[in-house]
Amino acid sequence: MHTHLDAYCTHLRSERQVSPHTLQAYRRDLDTVLAYCLKEQVSSWGALDIQHLRRLVARLHQQGKSSRSLARLLSAVRGFYRYLNREGICSHDPANGLSPPKGERKLPKTLDTDRALQLLEGAVEDDFLARRDQAILELFYSSGLRLSELTSLNLEHLDLANGLVQVLGKGSKTRVLPVGRKAREALELWLDMRLMSNPIEDAVFVSQKGRRLGPRAIQVRVKAAGERELGQHLHPHMLRHSFASHVLESSQDLRAVQEMLGHADIATTQIYTHLDFQHLATVYDSAHPRAKRSKSSDS
Q1: Annotation marks residue 39 as catalytic
Q2: 22, 79, 143, 277: which is deepest, by most CB within 10 A?
Q3: Domain limits of the chain?
C-alpha cells in the first residue's frame, strides 16, 4: 500500500505537476487514510470500502476536523482511486457517493474600501523595503493574486505599458490580469529600486540580497503593514478577498470576477455575493424606516 501511494505522489509531482503545497496536502490526507487502514487491518487499497471510509470520516469529525478538511480528504481519495483504477490496481472508489458532514461556511474576512485605502495611501519612504512592500500590497489588491502567484512572478510576466500581468495559477493554468494605475506606479518605482540589490534572478520581488522572496517572507511583510497602518492582522488572502468583494460590489459581474480570480467553479466565486448581501442588509437595516423590528412580539 505504501508503494502504490508513493507511486501516486510521484505521478502528481512529475506528470500532473501539482504545486509542492498541494502535493503535501494530498500526501498528508492519504497518509491519514493509510494509517486507518493499517489500524483496522485493511490489507490492500482494493479492500477499502465505503463503510470503512464513512467510519473514518465520522471519527475525524468527532475529533474536531472541519467539514472543509474532510471534503479535501475525500477529494484526495477520489483522485487516488482514479489513478489506482487506471493502473488496474483496483476497480472501485470507496469515496463515491460519500459527502463530509455539513459545516458552517465561513465567509472570508475582507477590508472595506476605506480600510483598503487607509492601508495603501499612507506616506511611503523612498527606500528599498518600503517601495518593494508597497508594490506587493498594491499588486495583491489591484489584481487579486494568490500568494503563490505573486511569489512566482518574473519580470517577463509584467507588461506595465499595457497594465497587464500574467500569472500561473492552480492546475498550471495561465491567466492575464489587469493592473490598476496605482499598482503600476508602485511597481515602476519598485523596479527602479530593485536594481540596488544586484538581483541574481528574474523574480519581480527580491530580497536585499537579490534572491526571490519566498511566501513566508511576503506574509511577514504584509502582516507588518497591517499592524502598522491598520492596527489589525492582515494576510495576503485578505487582500485577494477584498479585491474580489470590491470589484463584485461595483460591477455585479460574477463571471468576470471568477475569471480574474482563476476559479474553475463559479460556485467558489459565489461566496462573494454573500459578502455583498451582508453589506446590502446592513445598509437596509440602517436606512429603511420600516426595517427595524421591535424586539418585543406584536400583541
Answers
A1: no
A2: 143
A3: 2-86, 113-283
